Each structure stands twice: as C-alpha cells, then as structure tokens.
Amino acid sequence: MKKNLIFIILIFFCGAAQASPSEILKQIWDIPTGEVKAEIVKSYHRSGIKVEEVYYFSRPYKRNPVKIFGYFCYPVDRSGKLPAILLSHGGGGTASLPRAVNWAKRGYAVFAIDLPGKGENRSGSRSSGPDMNVSILLRTQPDPSYNYLIHAVAAARNAITYLSKRKEVDPDRIGMIGLSWGGVLTLLTNGQDNRLKAAVNVFGAGYISEGCTWGDRFLSMSTSDRELWDNYIDPKNFLSTQHAPIFFITGTNDHCYYLPTFQKSYRDVKVEKKIWLIPNLRHRFLSSAAEPALAWLDQKLKKGGIFPEVAMLPPFQKNSNKLIIPVKAVVHSQVKNIRLYYTLNGPQQWTKNKWNELLASYQEGNVYYFALPVNLIRPEILFYVGVEDDHGGTASTLVQSLFAAQFKDGTKTFAFSSPITQTYHHEKPIRLLNGIDSSKPPFSFTKKDNTYQLFPAP
C-alpha cells in the first residue's frame, strides 16, 4: 500500500520522485500572496462602523475562478492604522456581520469571510468554489489539491493579502480566529503564513483521524487515501511550524474534535501558546468565550502585557483522607477565578463526562492548594485547573489522569499520568507521589480493591 501512495504522489507531481515530504506539502498548499484582485460591491454604516461588502479572487477550482465574499468592517472614527482580525466560521456557517461589527467596535479592522462554496446548511454562502461538505473536507482524490481545506487556506491567505493592502490596516498587526473547521483552518494557515501575528483556534485540532466525530468515514477510507490525508492534509503537519502566538480554546465534551487530539495538537506547537478548557462544554461557541479570545488578540496586537500562567506543582498526600494538588498561577493583575475540575472517569467517553469543580483550600502567595478527597478516586479521575484574571485572560493546565495504585506487598499510593493525548490510554511517564516513574514496570487494574496493581513491589 505504501507503493500505491508513492504512485499517487508521483502522478500528482509529474515526476517529483525525489521531492521531500516538506517539498510535496509546499507544492500542494503554496499560493501567490503578493497581490489579490478585489472589488467593493456595497458600503454602509452600522453603529459607528464602516461596513464594506467585498469580493476577492482566490485559488481556482477545477480550472474555474473562485470568488470569496467578506464583510470588511472598521471604526469610522479611527486614529492611524488599525490592527486587523480575520474571522473564519465553521462547518455550516457563513460570515457573521453582527460579530464583525461588534469586534470592530473594539478598535479593529475585521474581515469576516464566507469560506468557499456552499454545502450542508450553507445555502446563504456568497462564495464560489468547492462545497463545504465532509466528503470534500476529507477527500484526497483525484489528488490532494481537490481537498476543501486546500481551497479554504487559499481563501484565508488571500484575505490576509487583502488586509495587508488596505490603507486602514497595519500589516504588521494581523491576527486570525477560527471556529471548528475554521479552527482547523487557523492551524493550517498559521502554520504556513508568517504574516499572522496572533491566532486563536477554537475547537480545531490536528491528528483528526485519531479521535473525531467522523471516525467511521476515516475507517472506510483505503489505506492510501488515509495516508494521503494524514501526511499532507491533516493540520498535524503544520503544528511545529506555527508562526504567531496561538491560543487554543475548546470544551471538555466537544464531540467533533476529541479532547485528547486537541491536547496532542497543543503539545506539538513550539511557539508561544496558551490553552483554555471550558468544563462540560460541547461544540458551541459561547459569547463568554469571546472575551478571552479577544483578550489574547488585544495583548498580541495592541496592548502587550502577560496572559495568565498556570502550572501543576508536585502533589502530596496530607493525610489518609486528603490529597493535595498545588498549582502556581501568575496573572496580569489579580486572579478573578481559579478552580480544579475533575470527572469520575478514566481516559474514555470524553463527550459524556460530567465535570465537577473544586475551590482551593488555601493559598500561599501565587500557589493555590486544592484538597482532593481520597474517596473520590475509585479508582481514577481526570482533572485539570483553570484560572481567569481580572483582564479577561484565561488559561488551563492540560487534563491528566489520577488513579489509586497498590504495590504487590499491599503498600498503597497514587499515580499521575502525563497529559492525555490518546483516547483510552494513560500517557507516560506515569509518576507516583514520590516522583518515581512507574511507566516501565507493568501495572494492571484489580477489581477486588478498586485499585491499579503495580509490579514489582518496592
């Protein structure tokens, strides 16, 4: 089957047998970014905001020209060049004029676009090009250039070019935010375009085939098609090349992009990054999530300053009833809210978990101590900590597993996994309370006493 994959690539690239994977990626995704043809078809005002309805040309599809529609909004009473935000919707969505106008009131030039084509629930789209259907989002035939995401990225990168040429916009302060498939698009775009200076990914992830709502579709793919998707389309190929500082936002119960693959994607990013996990949230962008997203863009494109930092410190057992989890939080001014969230489950059934919250028992400086009742851990929980500051900033630790463990000689302890990046698996290294890495000795679940049995004994 590997031969089939090579054969497909050879056909597509007309003899590029010696091309490296990075060169093949460039050939698939690359578009000119020097110029973009555009026209303003309508302009008007909304609550002190100038609105222009714009069409611009993007990458042709099946040799036909593609025109992308967008709302370009900016404050009428502006002073100097403005920072700009490119706003990308998700599957089934279109450009949101109310959101673009509201965000422009914050002092931005906002470009909200209809991604290419129409598709399911997108009859109102004013853009041409391939339709935004799952079958086209996952397609690799007749060659990878027919995949929807190739054309969506072209639309986004041409939008960045358009913004950079507008007299109202500071080309050195352009950011992007995308929701759902728009979040995937943000990862793909920020991984390829160094003109972005800030990015916000809401829900989107790489490693999509490893954990998502479209799992049955990936299973029905041929091996060669799956390899083409994984190696040349999936955002995982651009996580290590992210350019702008990026903020990841998702719900713990998101049913489209499962939390483990979201965390795995976050782990692979090398540039400045933060993550915010919203407990019990499924696949819905709440208005309350907009403030942290805009706070991130404000910091990177306008104000500077620090975003909240939160980190786990080594846990310890206070007594037979309490396990203490210390967390260090550093914020811009003061902590508005800090919580430990936990669910009585292991690394499975991500969309069905019920997350509970726990307040800190006490505080010493910027370290918060959470007392976790031992009787909750029967035999395992998932947990993380989230913090909010008084400037709209938020941050979370990654979700880890905590489970009761017992050596063969009857000695009891607790063990922590590394942040979970696979469904159904504890991530190594797995450390005991004393810091010992227990990953190498095998351990197994014992139903009799509701613990994980560790071998060998100390």
Considering the chains and any ligands shown, give keywords for the structure.
single chain; 458 residues; alpha+beta; Rossmann fold; Immunoglobulin-like; 2 domains; nine-stranded mixed β-sheet; 10 helices; 23 strands; 22% helix; 34% strand; disordered N terminus
Give a nutshell description of this structure:
The protein is built from 10 helices and 23 strands.
State the CATH topology of the largest domain. Rossmann fold
Main β-sheet description: 9 strands, mixed
Helix content: 10-25%
What is the number of helical segments per DSSP (H or I, 4+ residues)? Answer: 10
Work out the oligomeric state of the chains in this entry: single chain
State the secondary-structure class. Answer: alpha+beta
| Main sheet strand line-up | 1-2-3-5-4-6-7-8-9
**Whole-number tally of structural domains:** 2
What's the CATH class label of the largest domain?
Alpha Beta
The outline comes out as globular
So, the CATH homologous superfamily of the largest domain?
Answer: Alpha/Beta hydrolase fold, catalytic domain
| Average of per-residue pLDDT values | 92
CATH architecture of the largest domain, please? 3-Layer(aba) Sandwich
Q: Uncertain runs with pLDDT below 50, 5 residues or more?
A: 1-8
Whole-number radius of gyration? 24 Å
Number of β-strand runs: 23
Distance between the termini: 47 Å
Strand content: 25-35%
